[in-house]
Design brief:
With 97 residues, the protein is an all-alpha fold. 49% of the residues lie in helices and 0% in strands. The chain is extended and about 65 Å long.
């Protein structure tokens, strides 16, 4: 127990010494503009040029198993939302009383 303060001090000094930079360090020079300004009139909405369907992302794989799984998830998701709504309703009823 008597050596703990010494060990802590030495550990802190070693940690701080690891963070120092050598005496011959020179900061690299980098040209930085005075301010950043976007060019006016050149911004526009992105318009993809491909013909990929932007709806159901899984349909691009044309996999019937994946389509079936997504349908199951969609149904389960609705059941989960209904269960959550029932829980919130019950919780609100309990808090009112």
């Amino acid at each position: 127990m008597k050596h703990i303060p010494h060990i802590t001090t030495l550990s802190a000094l070693a940690f701080l010494a690891a963070c120092t930079v050598g005496p011959d360090y020179q900061r690299p020079s980098v040209e930085v503009p005075a301010s950043y300004k976007e060019k006016s009139g050149e911004w526009r909405q992105a318009t993809p040029q491909d013909e990929i369907d932007r709806g159901a992302w899984w349909s691009i794989y044309k996999d019937p198993i994946l389509n079936d799984l997504e349908q199951q998830v969609e149904v389960s998701n609705q059941n989960l939302k209904a269960a959550e709504a029932a829980y919130r309703e019950a919780n609100a009823t309990v808090e009112e009383t």
